[in-house]
Amino acid sequence: MSVFTPVTPEQMRDWLAGYAVGRLAELRGIEAGVQNSNFFVTTTLGRYVLTLFESVPRAELPYYLHLMAHLARHGLPVPAPIANRDNDYLGTLAGRPAVMVTRLAGRSEMAPSVAQCERLGAMLAGLHLAGMSYGRRQDNSRGPAWRERAAAAVLPQLAPGDRALLEAELIVQRGLDELDLPVGTIHADLFRDNVLWDGEHVGGVIDFYFACTDALLFDVAVTLNDWCGRTDGTLDPARANAFLLAYHADRPFTRAEREAWPAMLRRAALRFWLSRLEDFHRPREGEMVLVKNPDEFREILRTRIAQPGAVRLP
Amino acid sequence: MSVFTPVTPEQMRDWLAGYAVGRLAELRGIEAGVQNSNFFVTTTLGRYVLTLFESVPRAELPYYLHLMAHLARHGLPVPAPIANRDNDYLGTLAGRPAVMVTRLAGRSEMAPSVAQCERLGAMLAGLHLAGMSYGRRQDNSRGPAWRERAAAAVLPQLAPGDRALLEAELIVQRGLDELDLPVGTIHADLFRDNVLWDGEHVGGVIDFYFACTDALLFDVAVTLNDWCGRTDGTLDPARANAFLLAYHADRPFTRAEREAWPAMLRRAALRFWLSRLEDFHRPREGEMVLVKNPDEFREILRTRIAQPGAVRLP
Fold it and tell me: Shortest Cα distance from A236 to chain B (angstroms)?
């Protein structure tokens, strides 16, 4: 489903001649991901992942690739881009911008344990700490301007109850005072399918193509909403507290973050409710993309509004 | 035997606070290596190796650390130095220059198979190709000037037969025309104990502290002498040819290299005969260092002289 652009073994052999990683042993498409074409590449020297970018603009790619390289260099288990013999990460293959990265061990866990949420909290703190010294900046493409645009586009399509919920939440979010919140490099999409578990250890954090410069607390909220929630949208305090305490131990929350926390959880829910509504009402043409149910995040938003003190920051 | 400088868990916790790799879970000394103190460091985020440098001058360390980072960035399985939150690789711990690197999988294989020699050939070619774009240069500390010095120091101690062998070989080596040999970044110490095997794959190449800028063919000769020899000093043609063909497939040998090959095999043998003679006659004081038998390399040198055509370059 996710190999939009095929790559032949001949093309791959030519591509590898520009690298220092040996010769092609195996090339295999990966049936996952909705934005890019991905392949497992095995050579005589190692195992890598090849990504062909189908929609991310080429000019934006250096931000992501150098971020991944920066985090890997700081000891985080993220895919490290492989430089070719000209010392470049980014090339062109089958007409697409393309990169090879290291292949990480593990598989995603859709029912994470308390212990895993604790490890994930430490991992997210590590990402934020290492990201502090990353020199490039990029605005959140799903920030306030996008939020207003997306909301305006989907509002006419919503049932009256949903419309009222959305309009009220937009007003709350416009009023959130972010000035004192610590800002840095965030992943912004750290869902369960973007973390590979190697036993109880985090083997890899992948899919950095929403990464940007924004409030660290937004990243915490996005992650917690996905990892520590129950199917009815409520939070599981055991997993949530394990996650937050582990994060706090390495990157302590500030007073301003504690105050902004309930609204930030709602902002994180709103961001994914809106993008899923966008996808639902305007599916991308010609692509066999799984359209996820927007209602899941409407319920998360409702629950965060109804139970603002369900989980507090340490 | 090889932890010359102890590190306490308290010191390690303080050190880790300067990184983004989580908190200390386990610290364990490694009983291997003769030059540095090494430790396995496990944190809440990952597994690393800590090295305290006991003898390499601090000013030389950036050459090695940036080389390892460069090769890792190019997809080679080498220990990648971890940057701290100030973006530096090199720090100070327990009064020693210190670095953390990624921990690689595998163990060394003292009786390598033909298939392993083939993989190693591809790996060495990959190291040489990736090393072409490394910007730093460093002379071989075991080059011609050292060779003459070391020979002069040990000659008086040798039995007449060995003395004659050494003096004759010095004359041959002074006469070797190196001008046309491809030069690049070489490992210069790629012995069997410096490669970790993860099954049939090279899991890691370690110990870059003899790396330098020199003839690529010297690296090929050093490696082949150790990996493809028998205990009597003769070469095993099956392993040697597998190694050389795999290397040649990715980094083709030149005509000048083919001509220099028999003398280069002797140069590589001489280099380790001399350093072992140095260690044997002047063991470093106060260190429990294993002094290896110099005679092993005298036999290799003798055999390379006696059978110059035993293994030819492809």
Answer: 23
User: Could you identify the residue written with the tokens 């720090």?
Assistant: B91
Please, which residues 4-33 of chain A have a Cβ atom closer than 8 Å to chain B?
19-23
Interval B164-203: pLDDT, tens: 999 999 999 999 988 899 999 999 999 999 999 998 889 9
Question: B114-306: same fold as B9-102?
Answer: no
* pLDDT value at A283 more than 90: no
**pLDDT tens across A209-224, in order?**
999 999 999 999 999 9
Q: What pLDDT band is residue B292 in, cutting at 50, 70 and 90?
A: confident
Q: Please identify, in words, the CATH class of the domain defined by B9-102.
A: alpha beta
Q: Residue B153 is encoded by which pair of tokens?
A: 């120091």
Indicate yes or no: CB of B85 within 8 angstroms of CB of A123: no
For chain A, which residues make up each domain, given as ranges? 9-102, 114-306
What is the CATH code of the structural domain delimited by A114-306? 3.90.1200.10
Q: Confirm or reject contact between A44 and chain B (CB < 8 A).
A: yes
The burial of A273, by beta-carbon neighbours within 10 Å (0-12 exposed, 13-18 middle, 19 or more buried), is given as: buried
The tokens of A292 are what?
Answer: 């996820």
Reported as a single tens digit per residue, the pLDDT across B37-85 is 999 999 999 999 999 999 899 999 999 999 999 999 999 999 999 999 9
Smallest CA–CA distance from A45 into chain B, residue: B123
